[in-house]
Design goal:
Length: 144
C-alpha cells in the first residue's frame, strides 16, 4: 500500500474515533449534569483534525518503524492529543475531561477494531464492561 494512502487511512481512523469520542463525552457529561464546553463546530473540527493528524502520523511511524514497541509507545500519541485538547480548551476543560476523552477514544478504537476483525463477542464484552464502568462513574459524579 502506498505511504500516502496509509497515512490517510490512519488519519481518517483517528479523526473518526476522536469525533465519536467527543460526541460520547458530550452525551456522558449531559447525563451526569456536567457542562462540557465545546467551541463552534468548525473550531472543534479543526482541533480534531490537527490532533488526529498528529496522532495518525505518530501511529503510522510506530507501525512502520517500531512495530515491536507499539504497545508501549502508543502512549506518546495519546499524550500529544491530550496536550492539544488541553491547550485548545485551556480554561474550559479539566484534566478529567481530557482523560475521559482519551478513554472514550481508546474504547471506541478497540471496539471498532474488534468488530472489523470479526471478534464480535469481545466487542460486546468490552462495550458492556465500559458501560458498567461508566454507570459506576456516573453514579459517583451525580452525587457530587
Amino acid at each position: 500500500m502506498h505511504i500516502a494512502l496509509q497515512l490517510l487511512l490512519f488519519w481518517s481512523a483517528a479523526f473518526v474515533t476522536l469525533c465519536s469520542a467527543l460526541v460520547l463525552l458530550n452525551i456522558f457529561d449531559g447525563v451526569i449534569g456536567n457542562d462540557l464546553v465545546l467551541h463552534s463546530l468548525g473550531k472543534e473540527a479543526a482541533i480534531a483534525g490537527a490532533a488526529s493528524l498528529v496522532e495518525g502520523v505518530c501511529v503510522w511511524l510506530l507501525f512502520a518503524f517500531a512495530p515491536g514497541a507499539l504497545s508501549r509507545a502508543i502512549v506518546f500519541p495519546a499524550l500529544i492529543v491530550a496536550l492539544i485538547y488541553k491547550i485548545g480548551h485551556f480554561e474550559d476543560w479539566s484534566k478529567g475531561d481530557v482523560l475521559m476523552l482519551l478513554g472514550f477514544q481508546l474504547v471506541t478504537t478497540f471496539i471498532l477494531s474488534t468488530l472489523l476483525t470479526g471478534h464480535f463477542l469481545l466487542a460486546a464484552v468490552c462495550l458492556l464492561g465500559f458501560a458498567a464502568v461508566l454507570a459506576v462513574v456516573a453514579s459517583f459524579m451525580k452525587d457530587l
